[in-house]
Structures are given as structure tokens and as C-alpha cells.
Write a structure and sequence with these properties.
It is built from six helices and two strands. By secondary structure, it is mainly α. It has a domain at 47-142 and 163-216. The protein is elongated. A hairpin with a 4-residue loop joins strand 1 and strand 2 (121-123). The protein starts with a helix and ends in a 21-residue tail after the last helix. The structure holds heme C (4 copies).
């Protein structure tokens, strides 16, 4: 009897040992490769160009996204919603909470976009999710005309499709990039106006090929002081 108990407990121990070893090697097998040393010298980035990479993880996903022909935005509609080129667009839909910070109320749709049944449209992705007080700058449109006339000259938007030096060469960026550092938020995905939806969102480093249009700088001639104190 004792001998049999001994053999049984030996097998129990062996079995438990087997489970333990198997378990260990199973989880070892699941381990992913990693780099065990720390990188103290990350690739230097040009500070003014870091915004370009903000949504770059999604580049490939954007490239593979089908185009939803029935819900595309056009540049006409895009400009209609802005007082002038570069102005904050007005909020074209009802807002649930009149007084709210944008955090959850707005970013749930505008952080990454996507289709919204109740507005039957794709939510445009915000280029600036970090500016959480959305309604400091974005307000619903209450009237179609101004309260009082103004002689403020309208700022024209630059033309699209005419910015290449040669056929097939990368167009220059015809707009300013202050508040437009995050290229993919406006140029990729289903909410991008169809005229400017980029064919190559997966190329990531946009400003490697697209340069600013510096022609806009006004020539003021030679600067001279009006008063001399000598
Ligand atoms: C349920 C999802 C949802 C929520 C929440 C939401 N939006 Fe929107 N938003 C949309 C959709 C969809 C559109 C596009 C509407 C269209 O094209 O007709 C839009 C359009 C806009 C636009 C116009 C963008 C452009 O390029 O013309 C602004 C500005 C905007 N929303 C701001 C806000 C703000 C600010 C909040 C928070 C107070 C907010 N939204 C909350 C879905 C949402
Ligand atoms: C400091 C002012 C300011 C704040 C705060 C702000 N925005 Fe904007 N937003 C702008 C301006 C200006 C533009 C137009 C940028 C341009 O056309 O160059 C814009 C553009 C947009 C657009 C349209 C992008 C496109 O396709 O042109 C969306 C969507 C948007 N904002 C959503 C938001 C949301 C959501 C928040 C809050 C998390 C927010 N904004 C906070 C000023 C602001
Ligand atoms: C706030 C939205 C927004 C952001 C962010 C943005 N763009 Fe644009 N882009 C536009 C719009 C709108 C146009 C059409 C001209 C205009 O209205 O300024 C345009 C036009 C262009 C064009 C000209 C396309 C053609 O066919 O002529 C290029 C190139 C371009 N953008 C590159 C970029 C690059 C590179 C970045 C990132 C540094 C960027 N854009 C960021 C909205 C944006
Ligand atoms: C390797 C160089 C290169 C990179 C990187 C690059 N582009 Fe382009 N881009 C081009 C060329 C070349 C064209 C002109 C294509 C043509 O005329 O057929 C172009 C065209 C465009 C256009 C006009 C519409 C179109 O798709 O033809 C836009 C908008 C644009 N690029 C935006 C972007 C954005 C946003 C990024 C970053 C995600 C980017 N590009 C990265 C080379 C590049």
C-alpha cells in the first residue's frame, strides 16, 4: 500500500513538474522580440516638423481604406463652413452640452473621425486634439449674415492642382502650416475633401518632398529707419 502511494505521488510530482516546465516554455515562446538596451540618442527630429508624424501610425490604414463615394466632402463645402481661409470652422451640428470642455464631448468623434449615423457624415479629424477647450474657437453658426457690414478683405484660398513645378513632381504646400502641422488629419481618410485627399498617406514624412511655398512673402524692398538718432 505504502509502495503504491509512493509511486502515485511520484507520478503526481512528475506531472506537476511537467505542467510547470511546459507552462514556462509556453510563455517563453509567446515572448516578443525586443531591444534590451535603452536608446539615449533618439533620431533627431526637426522640432518644427514633429507634427507631421503625429498620426503616422495610421498611414497604412488610411492607404487601405476604401473610398465611400456617397459621403465624400468637397472643398466647396469645406470653405462654406469657414468665415475666411484658415478661420476656425463653425460647428455645423447640434451640440449636446451647451457648456462643456471639448475633451469627451467633442473628441469622442473628432479625435479619430469615423462615420456618424445621426449626422450622416464622417467626422473630420481635428489637427489639434490637445487644445481641449474646443468652443473657445469653434461656435455654432447662428446667422447667415454679419451684424454690421465690414470692409475686411476676404482672404482667398490658394488654388489646388496647380502647385507642381512639373507634371508628376510634388506640389509645394500652398498654405501656411501654423496649426496645420498635422498633415494626415486633413489630407487622409474619408473626411478629407476629395480634391486634397492624398493618394499616398503611407509615405509619412510629408515635408521630405513637399516644401513650403515661400513666394507668398511680400517684398518690402530695402528696410530703412525713418528716424535717425545719430
Ligand atoms: C457624435 C459625433 C460628434 C460629436 C460628439 C461632435 N461632432 Fe463635430 N462633427 C461630427 C460630424 C459627423 C461632422 C461633419 C458634419 C458634416 O459634414 O455635415 C462634424 C463637424 C464638425 C465641425 C466642422 C468641421 C469642418 O471641417 O468643417 C466642427 C468645427 C465640429 N464638428 C466641432 C465640434 C465640437 C466643438 C464638438 C463638441 C462640442 C463636436 N463637434 C462634437 C460629429 C461629431
Ligand atoms: C485656439 C483655437 C482653437 C481651438 C481651442 C480648437 N480649434 Fe479646431 N480649429 C481652429 C482653427 C483656426 C482651425 C482651422 C485651421 C486651418 O484651416 O488651418 C480649426 C480646424 C478644426 C477642424 C477642421 C480641420 C479641417 O479639416 O480643416 C476641426 C474638425 C476642429 N478644428 C475641431 C476641434 C476640436 C474637436 C477642438 C477641441 C478638442 C478644437 N478644434 C479646438 C482653432 C481651434
Ligand atoms: C487644417 C487642414 C490641413 C492641414 C493640417 C494640412 N493641410 Fe494641406 N491643404 C489643406 C487644404 C484645405 C488645401 C487646399 C488649399 C487651401 O485651402 O489651403 C491644402 C492643400 C495642400 C497641397 C496642395 C495640393 C494640390 O493638389 O495642389 C499640398 C501639397 C498640401 N496641402 C500639403 C500639406 C502638408 C505637407 C501638410 C502638413 C505639413 C498639410 N498640407 C497640412 C488643408 C490642410
Ligand atoms: C517621396 C515623396 C513624397 C512624400 C514623402 C509625400 N508626397 Fe505627396 N506627392 C508627391 C508627388 C511626387 C506628388 C504628385 C503626384 C502626381 O502628380 O501624380 C504628390 C502629390 C500630393 C498631393 C496632391 C494630391 C495627390 O495625391 O496627388 C497631396 C495633397 C500630397 N501629395 C500630400 C502629401 C502628404 C499629406 C504627405 C505625407 C503623408 C505626402 N504627400 C508625402 C511626393 C511625396
Amino acid at each position: 500500500m505504502k509502495k503504491r502511494l509512493g509511486i502515485i505521488s511520484l507520478f503526481v510530482i512528475l506531472f506537476a513538474a511537467f505542467i510547470a516546465v511546459w507552462n514556462y516554455s509556453y510563455y517563453e515562446g509567446l515572448e516578443e522580440a525586443y531591444i534590451p538596451i535603452e536608446n539615449n540618442n533618439p533620431t533627431p527630429m526637426i522640432p518644427s516638423e514633429t507634427g507631421v508624424f503625429e498620426r503616422s501610425d495610421l498611414g497604412l490604414e488610411y492607404a487601405n481604406m476604401p473610398i465611400d463615394e456617397n459621403h465624400q466632402r468637397s472643398l466647396d463645402g469645406y470653405y462654406d463652413n469657414r468665415a475666411y481661409h484658415g478661420a476656425p470652422p463653425s460647428i455645423p451640428h447640434p451640440v449636446k452640452e451647451e457648456r462643456s470642455m471639448g475633451g469627451k464631448t467633442c473628441l469622442q468623434c473628432h479625435e479619430n473621425g469615423g462615420f456618424t449615423e445621426k449626422f450622416n457624415a464622417y467626422a473630420p479629424v481635428t489637427p489639434h486634439p490637445e487644445m481641449v477647450n474646443c468652443r473657445q474657437c469653434h461656435v455654432p453658426l447662428k446667422t447667415q449674415s454679419l451684424f454690421k457690414g465690414t470692409n475686411f478683405p476676404e482672404l482667398e484660398a490658394p488654388a489646388v492642382g496647380v502647385n507642381n513645378a512639373l507634371i508628376g513632381s510634388p506640389p509645394v504646400i500652398p498654405h501656411q502650416i501654423q496649426m496645420r502641422e498635422n498633415c494626415l488629419s486633413c489630407h487622409a481618410g474619408p473626411s478629407a475633401p476629395k480634391e486634397i485627399r492624398v493618394t499616398h498617406p503611407e509615405r509619412i514624412n510629408c515635408r521630405q518632398c513637399h516644401v513650403l511655398n515661400n513666394k507668398e512673402i511680400r517684398d518690402i524692398g530695402n528696410f530703412s529707419r525713418q528716424h535717425s538718432y545719430e
